[in-house]
Amino acid sequence: LAQRAFSVDELTRTALQGAGELVPMAVILLLALALGDVAVELGTGEYVARVTSGLMPPVVFLPLIFLVSAAIAFSIGSSWGTFAIMLPIAVPAAASMGLPLSPFVAASLSGGIFGDHCSPISDTTIISSMAAATDHIDHVRTQLPYALLAGTAATLAFAVLGATL
């Protein structure tokens, strides 16, 4: 406005258009938070702990939390939505098994971030390709080998950590 690059009408129209483009992301996050609340109310974490406690040792369960978080984040394109879904499941499951919570929180968070980073529908991936002025799918393809290497290392690290619990 000070430089008169935009009129007040143009600025208002542009701001409203930009805000409108955020609505789908807000809806996804809202639905993920609602799903997380449903998981808490249904006792999903405790149920998962009961079902897996005899069948799945921490050496398997901890990397599985990471991989499931990654798959959810990749599918919905939102790390925050994944946190809202997975933390109400992973934390009570770990607590019910008598395991320390921090590794399960770490697996949920890092899996969510990993999946979000790899997802072609993630806002951060889209913004990165736009900022680099590259084709979006080319950007996804070029970052995948590095991300998959890090994801594999994280999966193995969570397995080793799970073996020590």
Overview of the molecule:
- This protein is mainly alpha-helical and 165 residues long.
- It has one domain.
- It is built from eight helices and no strands.
- Helix 2 packs parallel to helix 5 (79-96) and helix 3 packs across helix 5.
- The protein is elongated.
- The N and C termini lie far apart (59 Å).
Strand content range: under 5%
Mean pLDDT: 88
Category from helices, strands and their pairing: mainly alpha
Largest sheet: none
The count of domains is 1
- Unreliable residue stretches: none
Please report the number of helical segments: 8
Q: What is the CA–CA distance across the termini?
A: 59 Å
| Quaternary structure state of the chains depicted | single chain
Number of strands: 0
Overall, the morphology is: elongated
Specify Rg, calculated over alpha carbons.
20 Å
| Helix-strand sequence | HHHHHHHH
Proportion of residues in helical segments: over 70%
Present the secondary structure layout.
Elements: H1 8-21, H2 23-42, H3 44-52, H4 58-76, H5 79-96, H6 101-118, H7 123-131, H8 136-164
Helix pairs in contact: 2-5, 3-5, 4-5, 4-6, 4-8, 5-6, 6-8
Give structural attributes:
elongated; 82% helix; single chain; mainly alpha; 165 residues
